[in-house]
Design the sequence.
């Protein structure tokens, strides 16, 4: 049906999007790659020049590098575990017949719409502050010493905040998937005497598996680049205790002006993201085929 | 057919769901409550009933000119979304109605650009913006946010357009409709709901984008994300003011978000979960 004319028209219609995205992806990335092999300091331009792989070596030998990769992975994995397990439980709960379901859903989904700096500041000051926070009030109520979350357990504090932001997303996706489960199947399983647990393991969980995969993949993309939450709470500290890879690159580039090292870190971040993207693409691609 | 739902079961589930929901919503609720307290009250320990003063709101506007940041947020999120729609509609349209063998690959590739970590291109983008004078300009940031969300916009529009039956177009053509009439009377009414949903979700995403909006602005083009981040270096006690600023920053988008639950699922799962 498609004639030569419609085909070239189609190409013409797609061109702006494709060209823009191509330029936006390739040009800065080439710059970064180029800078990663350069000594480049805008404050000290005399020593600028080609330095081979030494930026990678420097970045790699920086003790902050390994800990930042580790922190990145800890944040991603912990938040995924909390949100997926919590999301499944919440979705099961919200799928029950309850009074005021609409309002409950609105309350649960709300944190997802809170911009990251607000979420981080609210948790930092109103909830987790060692003196004026609600957690401190609760601790004092029970006669315990309030915890200095961002001083003693900065990573846990950040994980809590990020998990709070993403739990609604996981819940909403999983609930949507749960509600598309065939009611007759459930009834049949019940009639056959399947208990709640076996119904969950053999019927519900397999049905939700695709939604769970999607939740994990999409969240991973965003969790790999957690930034604002760290910036406004711990600023990466104490020391490098809560610095993840994006934050380390930001520090190197815009605070220390070590552009070469920052670019090397950026290239490593791209490689990390590509490993994840490879799996993400395959899973989403499969869903397209149906 | 229906399973007999006992009232007891429903009561327990309702109680559990409400407790969990209120716990999750609590930080937002407490922020709203605190915004109606005075600074004195705000640090006097846990209290759910505020005195109802509006002084924090007045002060936020007076001291830091909240409205300017709010306006920037509106301009950036709506502007970038409109721009993205303008560019994406033709692309999504042609992919949905005259797909080729490569359409799927193009879509996948577009999605992959979304996975590039922003920090990897932070410095080049910073340089480009600096040297072209786009740093701290609304135009630069609008283009930036447009590029970030363009893949999602194309994808969402594609999944919506794909559901419009092609036969309708043929029928209209058989009835002698001109191309122009076809677009106005047949296509537009069917495409508008999808476009509206896409816009809604993308305004939310652009509003909350908190990397480029913070790093590429200082004062002129700074939206609410940058404004709120400036509160991270405390100048004395400012709990009530922080709460008022936070409430103002999230309220519009929170309300929009409540209406976009379905689009959210669809848009962020790229049509994989409906």
Sequence:
């Amino acid at each position: 049906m498609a004639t030569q004319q419609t085909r070239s028209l189609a190409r013409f219609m797609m061109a702006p999007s494709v060209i823009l995205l191509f330029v936006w992806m390739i040009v800065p990335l080439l710059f970064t790659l180029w800078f990663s092999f350069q000594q480049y300091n805008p404050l000290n331009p005399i020593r600028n020049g080609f330095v081979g792989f030494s930026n990678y070596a420097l970045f790699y030998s920086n003790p902050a590098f390994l800990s930042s990769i580790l922190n990145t992975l800890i944040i991603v994995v912990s938040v995924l575990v909390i949100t997926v397990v919590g999301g499944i439980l919440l979705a099961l709960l919200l799928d029950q017949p309850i009074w005021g379901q609409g309002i409950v859903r609105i309350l649960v989904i709300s944190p997802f719409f809170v911009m990251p700096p607000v979420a981080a500041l609210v948790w930092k000051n109103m909830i987790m502050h060692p003196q004026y926070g609600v957690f401190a009030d609760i601790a004092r109520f029970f006669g315990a010493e309030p915890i200095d979350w961002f001083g003693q357990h900065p990573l846990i504090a950040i994980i809590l905040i990020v998990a709070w932001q993403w739990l609604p997303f996981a819940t909403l996706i999983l609930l949507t998937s749960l509600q598309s489960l065939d009611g007759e199947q459930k009834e049949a399983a019940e009639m056959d005497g399947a208990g709640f647990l076996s119904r969950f393991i053999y019927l519900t969980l397999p049905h939700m598996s695709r939604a769970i995969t999607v939740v994990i993949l999409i969240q991973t993309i965003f969790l790999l680049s957690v930034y604002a939450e760290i910036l406004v709470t711990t600023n990466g500290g104490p020391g490098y205790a809560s610095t993840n890879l994006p934050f380390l690159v930001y520090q190197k580039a815009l605070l220390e002006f070590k552009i070469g090292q920052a670019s090397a870190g950026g290239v490593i971040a791209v490689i990390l993201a590509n490993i994840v993207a490879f799996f993400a693409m395959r899973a989403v691609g499969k869903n397209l085929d149906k | 057919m229906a399973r007999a739902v006992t009232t007891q079961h429903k009561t327990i589930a309702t109680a559990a769901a409400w407790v969990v929901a209120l716990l999750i919503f609590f930080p937002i609720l407490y922020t709203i409550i605190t915004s109606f307290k005075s600074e004195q009250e705000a640090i006097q320990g846990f209290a759910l009933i505020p005195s109802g003063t509006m002084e924090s709101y007045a002060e936020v506007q007076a001291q830091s000119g909240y409205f300017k940041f709010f306006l920037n947020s509106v301009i950036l999120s709506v502007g970038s979304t409109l721009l993205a729609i303008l560019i994406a509609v033709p692309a999504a349209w042609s992919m949905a109605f005259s797909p080729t063998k490569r359409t799927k690959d193009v879509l996948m590739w577009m999605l992959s650009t979304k996975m590039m970590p922003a920090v990897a291109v932070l410095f080049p983008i910073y340089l480009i913006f600096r040297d072209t004078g786009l740093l701290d300009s609304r135009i630069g940031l609008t283009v930036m946010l447009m590029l970030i969300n363009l893949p999602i916009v194309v994808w969402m529009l594609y999944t919506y357009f794909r559901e419009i039956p092609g036969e309708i177009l043929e029928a209209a053509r058989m009835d002698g409709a001109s191309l122009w009439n076809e677009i106005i009377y047949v296509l537009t009414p069917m495409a508008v709901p999808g476009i509206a949903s896409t816009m809604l979700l993308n305004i939310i995403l652009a509003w909350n984008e908190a990397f480029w909006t913070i790093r590429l602005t200082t004062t002129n083009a700074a939206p609410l994300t940058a404004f709120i981040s400036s509160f991270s270096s405390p100048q004395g006690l400012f709990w009530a003011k922080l709460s008022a600023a936070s409430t103002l920053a999230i309220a519009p988008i929170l309300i929009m978000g409540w209406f976009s639950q379905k689009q959210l699922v669809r848009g962020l799962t790229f049509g994989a979960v409906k």
